[in-house]
Design goal:
With 304 residues, the protein is of the alpha/beta class. It contains nine helices and ten strands. The chain has helices at 11-24, 51-70, 88-99, 121-126, 160-174, 191-212, 228-233, 260-268, 292-303; strands at residues 2-6, 30-37, 77-84, 103-107, 134-137, 149-153, 178-185, 218-225, 241-246, 273-276. Strand 9, helix 8 and strand 10 form a beta-alpha-beta unit. It comes from Lysinibacter cavernae.
């Protein structure tokens, strides 16, 4: 399993590494730290490119990557790469596709409040085009331990099932609890809507319990407030948990498109969020519902 980390030599890059380390702990995973530099082309500030300029730029990037690798604890496999692309997001997506990464991990943009996230240009590019799930670490993210709980935000629209599948798989692979939440922005007097939301979450919980056969603890809650942000803030959050959401129904097949609800959640969440592409299919080697015999058979057939 491999996680592509969008690294920059600042707090954003360090937060991304801390989140990627949390994902990698307890798994046979490799972190791939990626720095993206602009390609040589006529519209650059220095053109034709000079060896001195290119060497200085690449040399500085290498120094920053060495510093980034040093932030990763011993025992976690780590590689580093300088990639040339027109945008940071483009470079990360290309690297993730080539390495068949399980996830792209980034920090939040500058200007975010402490322990909160905001969407900058890099996140915006990824969250509207990536074919790989994207995880965003809030500012100041420093988990106290391994990932402790997976929270899956569910709804009635397309995309919720994709996120739920990833949440179930993640919780099973890590043997940690799964929490299912349904968020409502409504007047507090709307008891019928609250009851329907709780019933919907409970039905999903029962379906999940039947699938996991008691292997993990599964709970379900319907949170409400005058706004989505207020509903999020009514829930308790463990500093080592992860929230998983799906893409908007507007997303192209197998691509991300962050919807308005997820965007509102992101602004107030004190924990990382993972956004899953629409109609995302979990690779068999990451899926606990695929047996070792099936994986071996597929490998054998592929060799033919």
């Amino acid at each position: 399993m491999r996680y592509v980390v969008g690294y920059t030599a600042d707090d954003r890059g360090r937060n991304a590494i801390d989140l990627a380390v949390a994902f990698a702990r307890g798994q046979e995973a490799t972190l791939s730290l990626v720095m993206v530099l602009p390609p040589n082309e006529p519209f650059q500030a220095v053109y034709p490119p000079t060896n001195d300029y290119d060497d200085i730029l690449a040399g500085q990037a290498k120094t920053w990557l060495i510093e980034g690798v040093a932030l990763v604890p011993e025992g976690i496999n780590t590689t580093a790469e300088i990639r040339y692309a027109h945008s940071f997001a483009e470079g990360l997506m290309a690297s993730a596709a080539e390495q068949r990464a399980a996830m792209i991990v980034i920090g939040t943009a500058k200007g975010a409040l402490f322990q909160r996230s905001t969407v900058g240009s890099v996140a915006n590019g990824l969250l509207h085009a990536s074919t790989t799930p994207v995880a965003i670490a809030p500012l100041g993210y420093q988990p106290s331990r391994e990932i402790s709980r997976i929270t899956s935000a569910v709804g009635n629209r397309q995309g919720a099932d994709d996120a739920l599948e990833v949440a179930i798989t993640s919780a099973l692979n890590r043997n940690i609890p799964l929490r299912i939440i349904s968020l409502l922005a409504l007047d507090t007097s709307s008891s019928d809507a609250r009851d329907r939301a709780q019933s919907h979450a409970d039905r999903i919980r029962e379906d999940v319990l039947a699938r996991v056969e008691g292997a993990i603890d599964v709970t379900a809650f319907a949170a409400h407030g005058r706004t989505i942000e207020e509903a999020v803030e009514t829930l308790d959050w463990d500093d080592s948990e992860i929230v998983i959401v799906g893409s908007s129904r507007l997303a192209e097949r197998s691509k991300l498109f962050m919807g308005s609800t997820a965007n509102k959640m992101l602004r107030v969440l004190p924990v990382p969020m993972v956004v899953v592409p629409r109609q995302y299919t979990i690779p068999d080697h990451l899926n606990p519902f695929v047996s070792a015999d099936e994986l071996n058979l597929e490998s054998f057939e592929g060799e033919g």
